[in-house]
Amino acid sequence: SHPPNPIMVNLDSTKLIVGGEVINNFNKDLFRFSSDKNSNNEKLTDKAILSNTPIHGLKSIVIDNFNNKLQLELSAKILGNNYPKGLNINTITQAVDTINKSGIVSIDKYKFFDAAEILRCDVTDNIKPGVSSEIIYKTLAALPIAKKYHVDYFNTKSNQGVVWKGNQKTVRDRQIFYNKILEVQRDKLLKGNTSILKDFKGVIRVESNHSQLKQLNKFFGSRKLIEVLNSDVKLNHDIFSRITTKSNDVDLRLFSQFEGMKFGEIRNYIGDKGIINMCNNDWEKIQLFVRVYNPNNYKGRHGYMNKIKALYNQLNTETKQVDLTLITHIKELLAA
């Protein structure tokens, strides 16, 4: 047997479109039919839809007779134990074989691979930085990032990770780093699968979501499934590099320090920090400001100056140093 192709691009959730001529036949009993006509009784739409398929990882099949198109929405979960590998140039045949074996629809594989195009997809990488995931996510959450991104940090029993969303006008990036094991454990059908859990142990899943056609064309130069899967573009590396281009001059203590704090304490902290920043970190100006606006509770053991002094000292001893070697390491892993 010929050796497997080198893995280029891995996909997870993906929506594909292809001409209806790839369909050999389909089981009409499983589909719901939907059509619309205009006032002249001419058809406007004519679709066969299967939205709850019996195959784990095949979300929906739409056969659009009016436009002669087939749409498939699937995820790498269709690969069973190969799920951690993702949909790539070596596993995509397994995905189509699984659909064909199901008896729902029979697809001509060769025509399908020749013509299938991506409507939207998640591009994924599994990396093992060899550092505790706690440290990774906190570092990522506190990263100085380019202004056009918004960051969210999750650290709960069922969700651990960092999400960046771009707020650019044209092509928006969305990238997420997260703990895949926690997600697998939420999946009723996968949570007992020791093979999959073992493959995801120590893995940080990096994923970017692409739902704009011009975005796919811009990044890969194509929307054709096989051309994207064969592409040597390291998309998650490129996006991560874009997001982190601004690795200086940003306050790095983002929100990892709020863990365990009550909301009232967080408000006080942000307010006090705001006063310190407004006074340009100048202690004499801070004293003057507090004396003017809080003359009755200024000095003394319980006075406000003592509280703000503690934060002032803390902010001035913490360095603005994030572990940039870790960020470089992540970029190397994504470029591999």
Description of the structure:
The protein has a 10-stranded antiparallel β-sheet with strand order 3-4-5-6-1-8-12-11-10-9. A two-stranded antiparallel sheet has the order 2-7. The longest helix has 16 residues, at 263-278. 34% of the residues lie in helices and 25% in strands. The chain is built from 12 helices and 12 strands. The chain has 336 residues and is of the alpha+beta class. It is elongated and about 85 Å long. It has helices spanning 92-101, 109-115, 133-141, 180-185, 194-199, 213-220, 225-229, 235-243, 263-278, 283-293, 304-317, 324-335; strands at 10-19, 23-26, 32-37, 43-50, 58-64, 69-74, 105-107, 117-127, 149-156, 159-166, 174-179, 204-210.
- Largest sheet report: 10 strands, antiparallel
Structural class: alpha+beta
Mean pLDDT: 85
Total count of strands: 12
Tally of DSSP helical segments = 12
Radius of gyration over all CA atoms, rounded: 26 Å
- Uncertain runs: 248-255
Strand percentage lies at 25-35%
State the order of secondary-structure elements, H for helix, E for strand. EEEEEEHEHEHEEEHHEHHHHHHH
User: End-to-end distance, in Å?
Assistant: 26 Å
